[in-house]
Amino acid sequence: MQTFRDLPSLDTGLSALRADVSGSGTRIAMVPTMGALHAGHMALVEEARRHADHVVVSIFVNPTQFGPNEDLAAYPRREAADAAMLEAAGVAILWAPTVDVMYPAGFASSIHVARVSEGLDGAIRPGHFDGVATVVAKLFGQVRPDVACFGEKDYQQLAVIRRLVADLDLRVEIVGVPTKRDTDGLALSSRNAYLDDGQRVMAVALPEMLVMTGEALRSGLDVPTALQEATGHLLGSGFDSVDYVVLCDAQSLTPLTALDRPARLLAAARIGATRLIDNIAVNP
Ligand code: PAF
Predict the structure, then answer these.
(1) What is the percent of the chain where pLDDT is above 90?
(2) pTM metric for this prediction
């Protein structure tokens, strides 16, 4: 695996990869990450390998997607361990640009993906998805992958990126990869490391609530009652606050008041200082 930190060397590395497979049609898959890799990321890498001849992974802790109250400096950085995992997984290129390479002096652009980025986490973390859309568009411009894999765990992010790619004709196939879960159902996330033992036990109420609420909705319970009971279940199980539990159209993420089309049940809730998100598909 080769690691590159500036655009000229990335270009050289990519040209070599593209020339490496005989015949035309060398496919490159990309997995954008912010590092601190866990099994959830490695599932994205595995999926990427199924779609292409070579896999490029980026690690860039993107400052523009952090809000003023979110601690960019505290975000875990462990590039050496990440690189070892990626190398073992057969990744061809690690793209690890510096902040100056990504946002040189004079940088002035920002991409806003209207509507789908505005509710849910977008309402609670203003500007977050502008930062995500802008950096992902830049990463796609730099690497020019044929396909890119993103986790369904960050379902709104996936929906924003699908909209971005369609609207800007970015010619990248976006693959959503099902959420990787611990044996008790908790979605894998770098944030789980912040939970103490007691909180970790309580956290399982989040996926449990999603499954129970999905079943209740499919059996005909009306949406407002189901969502109210879902919030009650989280608070009764040790969560300190609930940012949202919402049933949305699976594509546009418009909130639904009836389960009358393919939908997604999404939730965000806090235990102590740790904010957890999760979601599942709910089909009528
Ligand atoms: O999901 C993430 O890790 C980030 O939001 C992404 C897509 C790499 C953009 O910085």
Answers:
(1) 94
(2) 0.96
Q: Compute the distance between CA of residue 4 and CA of residue 10 in angstroms, rounded to an integer.
A: 6
Gap between the Cα atoms of 180 and 197, Å rounded: 20
CA angle 239, 124, 264 (to 5 degrees): 70
Using alpha carbons, list the distances in angstroms from residue 101 to 13, 74, 108, 128: 17, 21, 14, 20
Q: Is the pLDDT of residue 106 over 70?
A: yes
C-beta of 32 in contact with ligand 1 (< 6 A): yes
Q: Which residue has the higher pLDDT, 40 or 190?
A: 40
Question: Of all protein residues, whose CA lies closest to atom 1 belonging to ligand 1?
Answer: 33
Cα 34 to middle of ligand 1, angstroms: 6
Q: What number does the ligand 1 atom closest to the CA of 151 have? A: 1
User: How far away, in angstroms, is 5 Cα from ligand 1 center?
Assistant: 18
- The pLDDT value recorded for residue 25 is 76
CA of residue 279 relative to chain centroid, distance? 12
Which amino acid is residue 131, in one-letter code?
A: G
End-to-end CA distance of the chain: 45
- Probe target for ligand 1 pocket from 125, 140, 154, with the most ligand atoms within 8 Å of CB: 154
Closest residue to atom 9 of ligand 1, CA basis: 132
pLDDT for 87 equals: 98
Domain boundaries, the chain: 2-177, 190-278
Q: Is residue 279 within a helix (H) or strand (E), and if so which, with residue range?
A: strand 274-282
The CATH class, in words, for 2-177 is alpha beta
Residue nearest to atom 3 of ligand 1 (CA): 33
CATH 3.30.1300.10 applies to domain 190-278: yes
Which residues are tagged catalytic? 41
Could you tell me where the DSSP H helices lie in 168-242? 197-203, 205-218, 223-236
